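User: Could you check the structure of this?
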Amino acid sequence: SQVQVDVHMRYNAAANEAFCLEILSSLRRCLSQQADVRLMLYEGFYDVLRRNSQLANSILQTLLSQLKRCYEPEADMLPPLKLERCISAQGDRVFLQEPLAHLLCCIQLCLLWCRNSIQQPNENEDDEDEDDEMGSQQDLEEMLESITQRMIKSELEDFEL
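Assistant: Sure, the predicted structure tokens are below.
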């Protein structure tokens, strides 16, 4: 309330954005950590985006680069996801390497939020940043659509089960 307003008024928007981008840069390094760490990041990105829309471009680019690690770009390849990168097996034990469900959920929530917030554009936003954000957003939307369509077509044999 008033205390929060006073705290945020002491700093200008550019300094706040620069500080947040620096934090996001540090968090990107966490994406090379264990699956549990990435899972927590995926769970938190949506809340960060809702609270600070200026970080949308950076968050969408980060999510895009993560999805590209598991995404099969060939449109006729089934399944559309490289699941061997998401799990590892040692003997009869299987370990999660990439929390893919959390990543996809985070991407969907962030895209939905961005789509709804674009209807009320921010006049202060830089056109170049907006173009980058729209590019990442469009790439993610196209990839999710491709994943959905190809998963519908996939059979159990495609997963080599």
